[in-house]
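Issue 218. Parser rejects a valid record. Input:
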Amino acid sequence: MKKIGGIGVKFFNYGTVLQLFAVQEAVRSLGYKYEVIDYAPSHPAHENLVQRVIRRVPEFIRNPSDAAQALFLKGVMRHPGRSKKFRNFLQNHLQIGGKIFRSCGDLRSDLPSYDAFLCGSDQIWNPRCYGNDPTFFLAFAPPCQRVSYAPSIGLSSIPDHHKKAMKDLLDGVAHLSVREKRGAQIIKELTGREAKVVLDPTLLLTPEKWSEIASPWNRNGSYIFCYFLESDFYSRKIVSQLARQMNYDVVFLLLNYRDLFNNSIIKKIDVGPEEFLGLIKNASLVCTDSFHATVFSILFKKPFYAFRRYLGNAPGQTFSRIENLLDTVNLSSQIIGKDMKIPNDPLIIDFCNANRSLNAEIKTSMEYLKNALRSATGEKGDE
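Output the parser choked on:
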């Protein structure tokens, strides 16, 4: 059985680690062994809490609310209970290689023994996030063995000073796919090559597969599950209206310090990936501005609302991939924005058309992955 080595990031974010798992399981379903290459680039030592507070003093003076939110979010991400659950998830559900690599040079000088190499998903091709790290373009591997599956560029345009480096790195990837249409357009502009637009890997696995690792949430009664990355006031107002209308409890997975002061909600912080899935799977209604919370609501056939994010009074650009997904599966009606009224029965949602559209996209995406891996491993296949 041929073996694939995967490159991604292991940041303790729900979407990030669940994508790693999804890529692994999708590749395995095609008859390959799969292993995540343990790539951990060196970073400066983390600041302690006192150092972070001191560094942010000028920011606190200029904008105390934003600075407080930044510190709160950092504290949530490093919460000991939460971090332990993420580490356990990686250990229990991912096959990770035994050697840690700190740079692309390390991988070149001691190339792991795989039949092909795959990079994806997440924003690993966003130069503002990772500075065109050649490792995330598989620059250490033979070009014919390089496969990308759904990496995200995450920008509407590439800064001029990154264009040449990015073009050179993309030229070396034999089998190109990306997660967004705009990413494919950028690759066309930089290289003249066509990149296949494929689904986020979390959408490739069946609800049954995700249910296998979802933790039950043992609480009596129906509840609205809320996972908001932004602190838009209007979203909290609508959630309160829904809770009163339906007489449901409200469970918040906290990411914003303002929600700490809401005594009418149930607050959760130390939640791992399995519990994140379980909170969605067992909810009666999901309210979110998160792409992956939207994904799992669709997969588990949970009534949901996707809330637009705003920068001031203007819609935020970060909502575009949710919008694209819901347009693809004919569920754009579930988007909520400012000054919109909620329906009389929020639990009625038709998933039939969504499933048909999604299944067609899954078939296309899996076909790309199958053919790319066949070619990269030296088997016969068409891409």
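Fixed in the parser; the record now loads. The chain has a mean pLDDT of 91.
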